[in-house]
Specification:
5-stranded mixed sheet; 11 strands; 6-stranded mixed sheet; 46% helix; D-Maltodextrin-Binding Protein, domain 2; metal-binding (chains A, B); homodimer; alpha/beta
């Protein structure tokens, strides 16, 4: 699931003009209050998001973040969540926070890769880090420092705020038995995954979420990737396609971001800053737990409804991996900031992958 | 690392009598304060822990929890951390919180399995869940509800508060080439792992952390398990043993717990309750990130110092797995509460493992 899909799915009609009536000012403490007045100031903040109302997984996670901040601050920092399109369109979340239209935003870093090419390296990479590895890099491997550095010129402070874990390879109406089967395949798959498909001889056809089902059913596309069983079941994709392929090589994890306008951030007292940071970390873990549990349950339901789960052949995965490495390197080389991030990140991830071989991977394999 | 080791490592000399001079009462708001007085009440709480001062990983995580609560509450809930032995011995943390000697505690659930046999199922199981799977079960699979139910009769509210991820199989001065090599092996390895070793024909020799190095060097023991590279390097075990075996079949993860005295909990206003819960979730993720990064770095250092990393043979791991399954089942059957937990948990984990086969495990394998 990427860029234009979310855009149209959420309805772009309700545009930024809806902001006109909003009051951006924080409430000032009344005269005569205690000397701790500054700490008692109340802030009413807006959080724009890339998600439709009640969107499973990531949308629910954004709501959890706002509720946590409201509860922990005892109402001193009230965060109101806006669905995509309510104040600004889904893909303008980063811009809106950057220019101060909203104090906060929640979205996926790769949605603004057109503006900030390095952003996708904090989000998802084909054959790249899973959630655990991305978190280790971000919080102990220098990732967050780089991310803050990359967003600073835009006046935005980023925090990791949610992860999907491993996704699936997608829904197919044609069998994939060899690399040749990608030739001429019409697939809806955006981003770096789409670039890989093009290099494999396929044709990328992008479209909003609402059109995928019909496109699959009519044969306008042969295949589509969305998120994982939890969100895919909700969209009903199994009713329009034959095979559900694994594993999700194109996105072994997607990390979502909380954006905070830097000028607004500096007006917060230290306790509220700490509350925002902890709420983001809470959601970062909780959303992954949610996806792991719900994806498992949804796949069981899909299988009960007759969905055939297939694994991409080794030969195909090997070729996809080679092509993905070229695509990621090319993407990094095209932008000096992205190149700097990828140089540090790729070296660190290589060390993490080597360590995972000895323990994490082995436990999966011997448990059988 | 388990029970008695921590006990002696931290020095049991400073006993619970040190509590005599402590004031357990929270500060009351002065008369004349605003109508929000109850929310402005200040609480001074003690948190006893099972960890020596500045203990890498888990000990640092406990300090992080206290700092987060102090910062987020703006000093309204001040948590003071006590190292093992300062107020109560390492293994009496649960008891101390249960009887209200301290309002909070941080330790490992399986330290009190003698009192609460079901506790270890929320902590670590041989060939059991990794950190990600344990978290999905706890926070979305009914685990936390069971954990709260199990601790309620003791007046303790538990929260997951930290994880180690996959540990290592330990340090050996004898090669393990077949299941027969466990016969007569003298190994320091407590808990369920120790029970497995005994069934394999080995001899479990338990001793405190401070004695392990000399015991290895003098041949009093042939092998020892501790935690993982990060903590093992700090203890210098590589200087007294030949081989470092992987994977950590006995503990694919250890989850740590925050304990809160239930009566004390009920005195907290809602905002402070939310702050405590979010701080625990923050540490739950952050400590895993810390272990993943630092274990990787420490193993690199160990290898630079000439440590030979070996993998246990498949034949050995298969047999260990069979025996571990018997040991876990027997442990659950011996206590009705543990049996209830394990019945629910084992069914849920089986579903999670099956899902992991398709995606998480496959990504590790194809990434190569």
């Amino acid at each position: 699931m990427k860029r234009r899909d979310i855009l149209t799915a959420a309805g772009v009609g309700l545009a930024a003009t809806a902001l006109a009536g909003c009051n951006d000012k924080s409430e000032k403490p009344a005269a005569g209050e205690s000397k701790q007045a500054s700490e008692q100031q109340t802030f009413n903040w807006k959080m724009v998001t890339s998600w439709p109302k009640n969107f499973p997984g990531v949308g629910v996670g954004a709501e959890r973040f706002a509720n946590l901040v409201n509860e922990m601050s005892g109402g001193r920092l009230k965060v109101k969540v806006y669905a995509a399109g309510e104040l600004v369109p889904a893909l303008e979340v980063f811009d809106a926070v950057s220019r101060g239209t909203a104090e906060m935003g929640h979205g996926a870093p790769y949605y603004w890769k057109g503006k900030v090419p390095a952003a996708q390296f904090f989000c998802a990479l084909p054959f790249g880090p899973n959630a655990q590895e991305m978190n280790a890099w971000l919080h102990r491997g220098g990732g967050m420092q780089l991310w803050e550095e990359v967003y600073k010129p835009y006046g935005v402070l980023p925090m990791a705020c949610g992860a999907t874990g491993v996704q699936t390879a997608g829904w197919f109406n044609k069998e994939i038995n060899s690399v040749d089967d990608f030739k001429g395949l019409k697939m809806r798959t955006p981003g770096l995954g789409g670039e890989v498909l093009t290099k494999m001889g396929g044709t990328v056809v992008n479209m909003p979420a609402g059109e995928i089902f019909t496109a699959l059913q009519t044969g306008a596309i042969d295949a589509t990737e969305w998120i994982g069983p939890y969100n895919d079941l909700a969209l009903g994709l199994h009713k329009a396609s034959k095979y559900y392929y694994t594993p999700g090589w194109q996105e072994p994890n997607v990390t979502f971001e909380l954006d905070v306008n830097l000028k607004a951030w500096e007006t917060l007292p230290d306790d509220l800053k700490a509350i925002v940071r902890a709420a983001a970390r809470d959601v970062n873990g909780d959303m992954l737990d949610d996806y792991n549990a719900k994806n498992m349950e949804a796949l069981e339901q899909l299988r009960e409804q007759g969905v055939e789960v297939r694994r991409l052949p080794d030969e195909v995965l090997s070729r996809l991996k080679e092509v993905a490495a070229e695509v990621v390197d090319a993407s990094a080389s095209a932008d000096p900031v992205a190149a700097k991030v990828w140089e540090q990140q790729s070296a660190y991830l290589k060390r993490l992958y080597e360590y995972a071989e000895l323990n994490e991977k082995d436990i999966y394999n011997i448990r059988g």
